Amino acid sequence: MSGKGFKSPLKQREQEQTSKHQDVETLKQQDIKTSKHQDVETLKQQNDIKRMTVYMPAQLARKLKIHASATDQDMSGIISMLVEKYLDKEMD
Description:
The protein is an all-alpha fold. It is built from four helices and no strands.
C-alpha cells in the first residue's frame, strides 16, 4: 500500500459525491452535515469501520492536520495507513 495519496473510505466517498455535484456551493450547511453523518453510518455498515479517540501531543496533531490538508487527505486515512504499516512490520 502506498502512503502517498491514501484516503480513508469516508474521504473517497466525499470526493465521489463532490464530483457528482457541479454546484456544491449552493448546498445548505445543514444538508452537508446530515449527508456526512449518513455517509459515516453507511460506511460503518459496509466496511466495518470503528470510531476511536487517539491522544497525541498537540504539536504532532497540528502537523498531522496541516499535512492532511496540504495533501488533500484526511487524518483518519493517514493514521489508518500508518498503524497498518506499523503492525505489518511488527508482525514480521
